[in-house]
Amino acid sequence: MVRQLVFDEPRPARPPRHLADLDAAGRASAIAELGLPAYRAKQLAQQYYGRLIADPRQMTDLPAAVRERVAEAMFPTLLTAAADVACDAGQTRKTLWRATDGTTVESVLMRYPQRNTVCISSQAGCGMACPFCATGQGGLRRNLSTAEILEQVRAGAAALRDDFGSGQRLSNVVFMGMGEPLANYARVLAAVQRIIAPPPHGFGISARSVTVSTVGLVPAIRTLADERLGVTLALSLHAPDDELRDTLVPVNTRWKVGEALAAARYYAETTGRRVSVEYALIRGVNDQAWRADLLGKRLHRALGPLVHVNLIPLNPTPGSAWDASPKPVEREFVRRVRSQGVSCTVRDTRGREISAACGQLAAAGGPAT
Ligand code: SF4
Asked: Where is the binding site for S-adenosyl-L-methionine, in residues?
């Protein structure tokens, strides 16, 4: 039986206001409320986005007398690291964060030779109920605020700079942690805008290096396209036919494969960006040769060269009977998709042994094992 989809928060919570929740006008009025000169707004934003400092007590260009007041009013501690687990010889690190209301979320930092990526959460839990995903099993707890999302980015960037030696910069941000980003649209949009804006208005990460994933919330995909931010859209498809996708990705009962692909095409045409299609390959479930052919055909028809398929060997989740497809099946699947003229690769899955890979972020009070 398909579990009910949850689009609205069951228990809306309001984390305290933080500088990262505010745009330039909001920062200016917050500074005015504190009775500080207007130029302090830019100075604080420069410290936060440019120097990755979130504690005014460390801001030496701020008069000591006002640091405490600024800290209280604009820099509450939103996320506290409750646990850190590393694997891949220290190249992958998962952090379990505890928010002010006790809610837990996770982010994962991954170092590669040519890039450094942080995978962040946009919601605590998820209401999309995909049965193969650990996060989906716990349901939606609440949306994260813009600042809670951005704090994961800042912490990742600061960890790269401070813990891994000089010269390490955060280059990529992927919204593929807990939650359906487009179900928390306004806060995610504001977060993306501040990730790509240059300091002092944002972290200055290239829009091309930011990926927003979705299970296919069709109206929100079109709205995001119209923002013309230039970020990469990743559509988690997981099946090319409605019959199977209705069960693997329950939102498909609302927006069918054809509608999701039409929205992806609109995104690609509007932004000029190639769309990523994510496909978790599950043994005996969605890895048949005919499904590979159908996937290739449908994608070629809908998106032509404006699509790339990422096959993701399914990550085991506790208690699940589902498993990754055998390698020969995986190779044949890739071959068949490519033979339809669609580019397709198997994604390197980092962090399996610390339950940090896709579909494993459960945050059930501590790192999953
Ligand atoms: S796969 Fe993504 S959208 Fe589906 S339940 Fe998991 S976190 Fe939510």
From this structure: 179-180, 213, 236-238, 315
CB proximity list for 255: less than 8 A, separation 6 or greater: 216, 217, 218, 263
Q: 71 and 83: one domain?
A: no
Catalytic site includes residue 87? no
Choose one of 2, 5, 119, 126 to mutate for the ligand 1 pocket test, by most ligand atoms within 8 angstroms of C-beta.
Answer: 126
Same domain, 90 and 71: no
Residue that terminates a domain, selected from 29, 53, 75: 75
25 within domain boundaries: yes
* Catalytic residue selected from 33, 68, 106, 243: 106
Query: Among 213, 215, 279, which residue has the most ligand 1 atoms within 8 Å of its CB, making it the best to mutate?
Result: 215
User: What are the tokens at 18?
Assistant: 């933080």
- pLDDT, tens digit (0-9, with 9 covering 90-100), for 256-280: 999 999 999 999 999 999 999 999 9
The dihedral over CA atoms of 20, 15, 157, 226, expressed in degrees to the nearest 10, equals -60
pLDDT at site 165:
65
Residue with the nearest Cα to atom 7 of ligand 1?
179
Model-level pTM?
0.93
- Cβ(333)–Cβ(299) under 8 Å? no
Contact 337, 153 (CB under 8 A): no
Residue 331 is classified by DSSP as: H
Residue 8 domain-assigned (yes or no): no
